[in-house]
Amino acid sequence: MAAAASVGVPATVSEKQEFYQLLKNLINPSCMVRRQAEEIYENIPGLCKTTFLLDAVRNRRAGYEDPHPRVRAAACTTLGQMATDFAPNFQKKFHEIVIAALLRTMENQGNQRVQSHAASALIIFIEDCPKSLLVLYLDSMVKSLHSILVIKLQELIRNGTKLALEQLVTTIASVADTMEEKFVPYYDIFMPSLKHIVEIAVQKELKLLRGKTIECISHVGLAVGKEKFMQDASNVMQLLLKTQSDLNNMEDDDPQTSYMVSAWARMCKILGKDFQQYLPLVVEPLIKTASAKPDVALLDTQDVENMSDDDGWQFVNLGDQQSFGIKTSGLEAKATACQMLVYYAKELREGFVEYTEQVVKLMVPLLKFYFHDNVRVAAAESMPCLLECAKIHGPEYLAQMWQFICDPLIKAIGTEPDTDVLSEIMNSFAKSIEVMGDGCLNDEHLEELGGILKAKLEGHFKNQELRQVKRQEENYDQQVEMSLQDEDECDVYILTKVSDILHSLFSTYKEKILPWFEQLLPLIVNLICSSRPWPDRQWGLCIFDDIIEHCSPTSFKYVEYFRWPMLLNMRDNNPEVRQAAAYGLGVMAQFGGDDYRSLCSEAVPLLVKVIKCANSKTKKNVIATENCISAIGKILKFKPNCVNVDEVLPHWLSWLPLHEDKEEAIQTLSFLCDLIESNHPVVIGPNNSNLPKIISIIAEGKINETINYEDPCAKRLANVVRQVQTSEELWLECISQLDNEQREALQELLNFA
User: Fold this and answer.
1) What is the DSSP string of 110-178?
2) How many CB atoms are located within 10 Å of the residue 460 CB?
3) Contact 610, 624 (CB under 8 A)
4) Integer angstrom CA distances of residue 604 from 467, 487, 643
5) Can you tell me the distance from the alpha carbon of 737 to that of 699, in angstroms, rounded to the nearest whole number?
6) Residue ranges per structural domain of the chain
7) Residue pLDDT, tens place only, 152-204
8) Distance from chain centroid for Cα 561
9) What does the pLDDT look like over 576-605, one tens digit per residue?
C-alpha cells in the first residue's frame, strides 16, 4: 500500500481501489492469491484497515464504482476477525462507527449474503464489547434489528428466502444474551415474530432457520427472566414439544437437534422446578441417544477408498489390508445427550431422582468409552450430580449407588490416556468424596488410590527430567520448547487435580487419613524444595495448607517439612507461591493450636513486608497481598499473644477493604465486626475517629459483592451502620466522606440485611 494510507493522511481513490482489490483477494479461490493477500493485509496499520473496511462496508462512492458484494462481504468478515483478534480495544476505539456501519449494511436490502455477513460480524463485535458501551446504542440497534426482522419475515413468507434471516435471529440472540435484563423493554416487539417463524418454518429446507429461531427464543427468555417470560412460556413450550415430537421421527443429523437440546436446557434454567412436568418428554429421548451403540465397521482398504468423507466416517488403518471405521455423527449426538443428562441432574436434583438409577447404569460403563472424549467427560461429570440426587432416597440407596460408582471411577483415574479427560475424572472423584463424606472409601479403595496417586506424582517428576534432557539435544529450538511447555502445563494441571483429591480426603477424613497419606509425604516434600519449578512449590504448599487446616493440631508433626519453605516462599517472585504460603500461615493461626505460636510470630514481619511492597496492589499481585492481610487478621484474632495487637491493628485497618479474594474478604469483615462489637478502642479510634473509615469499608464490601445477605456477617455489618446512625452528627460526618455509589450500597445493605 502507498505511504499516503498511513494514520491521519486521507487515502486517495487509487489507494481505496487497491484496498478493495485486496479484500477480493482475501476470498479468492486460489490459495496462493489468498496467502499473498493475507500477508499484505497483516502489514497495514490497524486504524488504516478500519477506515478502508468501513468504506467498503458502507458501499461509499468516491469517484469509482461501488464495491462488489463479494468485497463488502469480505470487509464484514475481516471486521469480525479484527473484533476477535484485537478485542476489547478494537471495540472500545471503534464502537460508534463499526456498529453504525454494520447496521446500515444489514438494513440495505441489496444483497442477502452481504446482510448475513454484516449480521455475523455484529455478533462477533458484540461478544467482546463492554456492556456499558453497548447500552449507548441499544435502543437504536434493537429498533434497527426489529425493522430488519419484519422485512425478512415478509420475504420468507413471500419468497422463501432465509439466508439473512438465519443470521439475523442469531444476532438478536447475541444482543439479548449480552444485555440481559436491559433487553426486557424490547421483549414484546420481538417475541411474536420469533414465535411466528417457528410456526411457519416447517419445510425441510427451513430446518436450520427453525432451529436457530428456537435457540434465539430461549436466549431471549433467559435474558429477560422468568417473570417476564412466563406470559409466553406455555405457548413456547408447546412449540418446543411439537418440534421435539417431530425430531423423534427424524434423521440423526437433523440440524434442529442440537438447537433443541440447548434450548431445552435454557428453558430448564428459566423455569426451574416448573420445568419438571416436561422432563419425561426431554429425558427419555436423551437416554435413548446416549445409550446408542456407535456404528463401527471393519473394512478392506479398497472399500474405505470407495467411501466418501461426506458419509461421516473416520478410519484407522489396522495394517495393509484392513481399516477400522466409526461413524462420527452419531458420536457427537451421543456426547451431547450425555452432557444434557448431566445438566438436568445438576439443575433439578430432586426433580431428577426417578432417573438416577437408569442414568448411573448408563454412565458408569461410558467411563471406558474411548471412541469419544466428551462422552467420557460427561460420564465423569455426572457422578457427583447423581450422588446428590440419590441422597433424597436415603443413606442406604446412596451407599449402593456409590458402591456401583467408586471402583470404576478409581480405575479410570489409573487408566485414562487423555489428560483433559483425566483431569475431569479426578475432579469428579474429588467432588464425589465430598458428597459421600467420612469413611466412603474402604481399605482396598484407599490402597489402589494411593498407588495411583503415587504413580502420578512420580510420573510428574520423571517427565520434568525428560524435558530437561530434550532441552540439551541437538534439535532443540523454539518450536521444541513450545511443545515442552505444553507438556509441562498438562502435567501441572494433573498435579492440581491430585491436590484436589487430597483436599477432599483431608476435609472429610481429617487426621484419620494421615497414616495413609504418609506413603505420599516424601513426594509432596519434594514438590516444595527450593529447586523445583514454581507451580510445584505452589501446589505442594497448597497440600500442606490443607493438612494444617483440616488435620490440626496433629499437623504439627510435619512442621519441619514445611516450616522454612512456608516462610521462605513469602519472598518468592511468583504471586501464586506467595499466596499459597500466606494462606498457610493464616490457617496455622486459625486452626494450628499453641504449637504454632512461634511460627506465627516469625510470619508477621514477612507478611507486612509483602503488603507494604510498592507494587503489592497491582493486578498481578493483589490476590497474594490480600491473603497476607487476611493472614495477619487471623493471627490477631486467633493468636493475639504472638503479636503486639495494639501496634498492628491500626495498620491492618488501613489495609482494608479486600476487593479480589471474596472468601478472605468476608473473614476480615467478620473479624472487624468482632472488634467493633467489643468496642475495641484502637479500632474505634479516639472520639470515634475511625468510624468514617469503617463505614467506607462496609460500603466497599457491598459494592464489591463481598457481602452476601445469607451470611450472618451481613446482618452484623448492617447493625454497625445502624448503631452509627443513632448519632446524627457522627452519621453526617461518615456519609459526607462517601460518594453516591457508596451511599446507595449502604442503603441497600440496610434494606435487605
Assistant:
1) T-HHHHHHHHHHHHHHHHTS-HHHHHHHHHHHHHHHHHHHHHHHHHHHHH---HHHHHHHHHHHHHHHH
2) 20
3) yes
4) 39, 38, 8
5) 11
6) 656-753
7) 889 888 888 887 788 889 989 999 998 889 999 999 999 999 999 999 988 88
8) 36
9) 999 999 999 999 999 999 999 999 999 999
